[in-house]
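Design a sequence for this backbone.
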């Protein structure tokens, strides 16, 4: 059908343009660090940010999932504002420890160890998971969720591919060693720092060229030392994805939607949650689940009552109110059904009461009880006569 041919043509066009955007970013970086054909920011590391801005606008326009649309919009804005315009227009230094003291620049130092931005990002990841950086404020992911989005379906998903995630530890170990290097006065600290970021830069931009073969997240899945560092904090902090196993229908859509190749359904069925260092918190598995099995959990949930406890408390309150109402109703009915009864005293009771009252009166007035009794009887007889 004509409509189908147009769709395929448009899909192919987007893939070609997306790949050209990736190549443009690579060429810009190569010009800046190696060839130096021009000093224009249009052909520098800013080339990646420019491409993210262009394709980010397109992705927001065509994205149907509201959560993903919002996330990509914020991610694109952060790349353009925080990573591109802030350092380009102002070039302000930020506080840092050791080697980077006086050298760190706002907007360029999130991945630079021992800078203020670095420490703030660590705190955010501990509280909210690595999604606080990776999914909302990272150009690495910005590239993959904009230009790389056209190649999502090429993501390699297998048990072997999942095991390859441990390859990240090679660069991550070097990154951890850099924490010590920048703090201590090593005479060759600059050499080690330049070596690390040089190696990372080559591998990072080279991964762009293989996205059509491996899927958009090849760097994030198997190579990124920054993501692995945040992933460790993922496990140590409050973040995870909770799952209601009873509602799961094993449709496999969560695993299918995950660009990181995480076996989400298997983790849900075996562990009842997704709590792995590789989860970047993009939210695709959550928003695409047909039964709403999955949900984010972070530090905010630690200070909230769980839905089950709230429901239990509500039911408990209702139950107590019901018991109280039943108690009042039954007591009222008993009172209403009770018939009034009058107990008439016997003659002996009346006489005993009269004698007791006379005794008390005589004690108060210092009288003889017998004489007082006779006087009372006499007065009673006279009152009866006069009343007749």
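Sequence:
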């Amino acid at each position: 059908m004509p409509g189908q041919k147009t769709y395929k043509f448009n899909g192919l066009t987007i893939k070609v343009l997306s790949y050209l955007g990736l190549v443009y970013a690579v060429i810009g970086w190569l010009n800046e660090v190696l060839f130096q054909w021009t000093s224009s920011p249009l052909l520098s590391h800013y080339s990646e940010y420019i491409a993210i801005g262009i394709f980010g606008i397109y992705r927001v326009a065509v994205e149907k999932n509201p959560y993903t649309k919002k996330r990509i919009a914020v991610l694109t804005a952060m790349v353009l504002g925080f990573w591109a315009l802030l350092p380009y227009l102002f070039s302000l230094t930020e506080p840092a420890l050791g080697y980077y003291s006086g050298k760190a620049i706002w907007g360029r130092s999130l991945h630079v160890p021992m800078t203020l931005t670095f420490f703030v990002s660590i705190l955010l990841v501990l509280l909210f998971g690595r999604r606080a950086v990776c999914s909302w404020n990272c150009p690495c992911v910005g590239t993959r969720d904009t230009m790389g989005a056209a190649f999502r379906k090429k993501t390699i998903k297998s048990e072997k591919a999942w095991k390859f995630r441990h390859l990240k530890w090679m660069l991550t170990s070097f990154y951890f060693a850099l924490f010590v290097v920048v703090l201590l006065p090593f005479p060759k600290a600059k050499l080690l720092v330049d070596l690390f970021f040089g190696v990372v830069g080559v591998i990072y931009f080279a991964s762009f060229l293989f996205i059509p073969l491996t899927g958009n997240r090849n760097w994030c899945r198997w190579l990124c030392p920054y993501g692995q560092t945040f992933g460790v904090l993922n496990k140590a902090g409050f973040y995870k994805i909770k799952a209601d196993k009873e509602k799961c229908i094993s449709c496999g859509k969560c695993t299918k939607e995950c660009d990181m190749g995480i076996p989400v359904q298997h983790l849900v069925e075996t562990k009842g949650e997704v709590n792995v260092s590789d989860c970047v918190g993009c939210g695709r598995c959550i928003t695409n689940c047909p039964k709403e099995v999955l949900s984010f959990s972070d530090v905010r949930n630690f200070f909230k009552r769980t839905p089950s406890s709230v429901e239990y408390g509500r039911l408990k309150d209702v139950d107590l109110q019901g018991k109280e109402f039943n108690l009042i109703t039954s007591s009222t009915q008993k009172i209403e059904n009770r018939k009034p009864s009058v107990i008439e005293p016997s003659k002996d009771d009346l006489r005993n009461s009269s004698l007791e009252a006379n005794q008390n009166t005589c004690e108060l007035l210092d009288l003889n009880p017998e004489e007082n009794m006779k006087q009372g009887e006499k007065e009673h007889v006279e009152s009866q006569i006069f009343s007749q």
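Residues 2-35 form the longest helix (34 residues).
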